[in-house]
Amino acid sequence: MLKTASKTMRSRMLVALVAIATSLGLVTVVGGAQAAARIGGTQVGLEQFWINGCGMPKVKVRAWKRPGNYKTVIMLDGMRAQYDYSGWEINTNIQEMVRSGVNVVEPIGGPASFYTDWDAPSNFNGQQYRYTWNCAITRSLVHALDRRGYRVGRSRKYAIMGLSMGGNASLTIGAQNRHNFDAAGSLSGYNFLSAPGMRTMIRLAMLDVDPKPWNVDSMWPIWGLQWFQNDPMWNIGNMHGMKIFVGSGNGLFGRYNALPNVFDDLFQGSTLEFLAFTQAKAFQAAAALSGLPVMSYDAVGTHSWGYWQDMVWNAKSRGFFR
């Protein structure tokens, strides 16, 4: 009897909270089947291939190319990257850029990797090999794309963009490999990794990524120089002459926050995005002081795919890939 009453009370509280959120304009109902319809939707120039993992298992890559396109962008995934498809293909339509000038390349896998070369395998979850994602992207992937004719446009260089952990990694990889990249974008990325408290925040986030938990000290030692070497803030000096795009939401609910996800969005998406927002603003302020122009995009929204899709299309419409 008590259990039934408790369940009823929780249900009523849920209904009440959703009703309040809806009345305040915090929740917008969107189609729940959006993600499932993405894969296979764009077949223009689609090819799949594998690249050397630099000591990791081979990395699967799915890419879209069309003759005459003026740019190729490498799109990096987020913390919960899967091994079947990139989250970009599952959850967005950015592959459609191939129809209007931009080739799209999506390396697959690497959950919690930060797309960097780790010091050691993660000993918390029995990882069998050391992540070497920086090598895989800057050497194996770039060389494979060169051989397949993806180095296009006037500059003959690539663009690189990513979301969340892939965002800050994109800025760092681009800045440290200027011979291959002339444009880099961070979407809800953590662009000031060496800021006070960030090591703890990253540590806690990685404990909850499957196959969990991941040990951040296996990635970069707690007081190691890697925290600075992989920090976009400390790489601003190498970004002059590049196109830089920084997008983030403000943590408030917007058009892509659907009813079924309201609690995840509130307790995870809002918190993560507000952190990314503060990091974006700190990075932009430091860039301005150093004379580095930054193309920015501020959204009313949380840490979720709809907003990242909009950011990519916004960058394209403003000439970021030109």
Automatic annotation (TrEMBL):
One GO molecular-function entry: acyltransferase activity
Alphabetically sorted, this entry's keywords are: Acyltransferase, Transferase
Q: Which SUPFAM superfamilies match?
A: alpha/beta-Hydrolases
Q: Which residues cross the membrane?
A: none
Q: Note the superkingdom of the native organism.
A: Bacteria
UniProt-recorded name of the protein: Diacylglycerol acyltransferase/mycolyltransferase Ag85C
